Amino acid sequence: MKYLLSCLFLVFVICLNAEAEIVTTDSGLKYEDLKSGSGKLAEKGHTVIVHYTGWLSESGKPGKKFDSSLDRGQPFSFPLGAGRVIKGWDEGVAGMKVGGKRRLIIPPELGYGSRGAGGVIPPNAELIFDVELLDVK
Fold first, then answer.
1. What are the residues whose beta carbons fall under 8 Å from the beta carbon of 33, sequence distance 6 or more?
2. Above 90 in pLDDT, residue 28?
């Protein structure tokens, strides 16, 4: 019995220390599922509704926050795969399920590239977004 309890405790500790897997796609996008969803799948052609927070990357970690739908209390919707958002979003949100949360680490070429954006995002900036998929239509 002690052996069984010791094994269960060890498994519990390992699970607590396990980090979420960071996936790197062929395009260079990195993402990490913070929470798996169980609802409808986000696919190209669907309109998705999300909450998000975006930061400038500082050594691969969130740095200065530049935007957040959560702060505004207003979810954001867009047609997935239609090119209405940066490429990193179209690629990174695809495959999520409603209720899921994902961290996107977006290289400059899938973000705003060498032009930056509105004086808020400098040229060639790596971006980090936490995205929660609220609904798919």
1. 20, 21, 100, 101, 102
2. yes
Contact 51, 135 (CB under 8 A): no
Instruction: Give the SS3 label for residue 11.
Output: helix
**Residue 1 pLDDT grade (very low, low, confident, very high; cuts 50, 70, 90):** low
Cross-strand partners of 30: 24, 105
CA pair distance 128, 112, nearest whole angstrom = 12
In terms of Cα–Cα distance, which of 66, 69, 64, 34 is closest to 51?
69
In the chain, the domains with their CATH numbers are 26-136 (3.10.50.40)
User: So which residues are the catalytic ones?
Assistant: 52, 66-67, 86, 112, 129
Q: What percent of the chain has pLDDT over 70?
A: 86
Output the pLDDT for position 14.
46
**What average pLDDT does the chain have?**
91
- Contact between residue 129 and residue 54 where contact means Cβ atoms under 8 Å apart: yes
> What does the DSSP 8-state code read for residue 30?
E
Cα 25 to Cα 71: distance, rounded to the nearest angstrom: 30
Interior/surface letters 48-60, b for 16+ CB within 10 angstroms, e for the rest: bbbbbbbbbbeee
